[in-house]
User: What shape does this take?
Amino acid sequence: MATQYLDFEKPLLELAARIDDMRAAHAAGDVTAEKDLPREIERLEVRLARVTRLLYRHLTPHQKVMVARHPERPQGSDYIQALVTDFVALEGDRRFGSDKALIGGVGRLQGVPVMILANDKGKDTQGRLARNFGMPKPEGYRKAQRLMQLADRMGLPVVSLVDTPGAYPGIDAEERGQAEAIAACLEVQLALRVPFVSVITGEGGSGGALAMAVADKVLMLENSVYSVISPEGCAAILWKEATKDTIPLAAEALKMTAQDLLKLEIIDEIVKEPVGGAHQDPSLAIRRVGAAILGHLKNLEGKDCRDSRRARFLKMT
Assistant: This one.
């Protein structure tokens, strides 16, 4: 269960706090507490589950953005640890250095040999700084190019797990050719002869996400988002300021939710999340993502999808 609650989850926080207090009183043997505490705890747990289902059934686009950014949402390293055996991380771009915002390497996805690329934002302050909050620099995208080309030579399918606010916009990244590195990633992806499946697991931000998602099949978790710009950035451009009033309007206008993008035929499948979001039951969310990836890899096995992949993305322009 998640330990951090979002602003719109206040009703859930209040119920969870009452349940925790009752459990503590029951464990302490508090005779002044209500006599039938186990039954009352069970009643409140049922109510909490019902309120959670209702709340998450009607999330606004902006609320989905908040869920996609939840700090306890499963990270790329979690997916790899749970789904991939015999994983060997491959580091460096052979030009400048190693980028910790993007994990890459070879392994077996439930027995299927793959090349896997995954964003990771980190789980605490130290980890987030080390991972640059999931924002790769040019060396990260050049590492991705290197590993995808290696997979193509070895005949390994490519799997990417995307969760990034976007490519790092700092001066040092621009000096090392951030735009060129992203553009070259797009070119490499379009030329791959091996099957390629991509999953947006949290945020899919701008060209930084597209640099890992020009795939044969693009999937999104139910509460993830995928857009050319963040709602905050869009609001700042359209209304000259990003406020609590303009940001939700921007999120709505961008059509960035998985449900909108499936209707627009930008993605191929929505992977259902546990009730309350992937952070409520990370292991279940990870298993569902793994099963979806394997299903698509099986359907793509032995196919050269270069022409259909190019046609798919050219149709979007």
